[in-house]
Amino acid sequence: MKILVSNDDGINSVGIDVIAKYANDWGEITVISPQSQQTASGKGLTFHKPIRLEKTFTVSGIPAFSFNTVPADSVIIFQHLKGRPDAVLSGLNAGENTSIHSILTSGTCAVAMEAGMKNIPSFAFSIDTPEMYFHSNQIPGNIDLAGKLSIQIAKKFIELVDNQFWQDVIFVNINFPDNLNEETEIVLAEPETYKYNN
């Protein structure tokens, strides 16, 4: 199982580190993330300048690659390095992506969208976070539980759905509340057009 782990918060975010940590037991992970914060970069790709790739590590020391352009480029970089991924895990994003506006704006969702358009099973994970943390490398709340649940959810989808699902669905968008705990209810919800009031 070849897994791409990416995000839009940058290689030094705790969100990508926790996803990589739990995904490491699932398959062969390759972490490829922007060098710096790319929140709200949307579904862009880079055709106008060279993409510079650098070997590095996540904050806990997991081997990784960082690059100098937009998040969705990580899917193309992975394909050049390793071929087609079996799954793409993007996040864990600081801040929810629950509206059409935020989904189309989000670099985290853009990674999953780019892969999903190629019929690759893809997931975007986000956790509701106070806005003061949007551009920091910290995420308050139960980030470890969110990372653990992210991988459990992705595994279940991969196990339980057939290939036709990934022909019909571009990506699975998962959002955790900031007060996440073991008793948090799972809800299937349609996105609003624009974000609700905080």
Question: What would you note in describing this structure?
Answer:
The chain starts with a strand and ends in a 22-residue tail after the last strand. The protein is built from 6 helices and 7 strands; from the N terminus they run E-H-E-E-E-H-E-H-H-E-H-H-E. It has a 7-stranded mixed sheet with strand order 3-4-2-1-5-6-7, with helices on both faces. The longest helix has 18 residues, at 143-160. With 198 residues, the chain is an alpha/beta fold. Helix 1 (14-23) crosses helix 5. The mean pLDDT is 90. Strand 3 (53-57) and strand 4 form a beta hairpin.
Question: Which SSEs are present, and which pair or pack?
Answer:
Layout: E1 2-6, H1 14-23, E2 28-34, E3 53-57, E4 63-67, H2 73-82, E5 87-94, H3 100-105, H4 107-116, E6 122-127, H5 143-160, H6 163-168, E7 172-176
Parallel strand pairs: 1-2, 1-5, 2-4, 5-6, 6-7
Antiparallel strand pairs: 3-4
Helix pairs in contact: 1-5
Which short descriptors sum up this protein?
7 strands; 198 residues; 30% helix; alpha/beta; globular; 6 helices
Summarize the structure.
This protein has 198 residues and is α/β, with parallel strands linked by helices. It has helices at 14-23, 73-82, 100-105, 107-116, 143-160, 163-168, and strands at 2-6, 28-34, 53-57, 63-67, 87-94, 122-127, 172-176. It starts with a strand and ends in a 22-residue tail after the last strand.
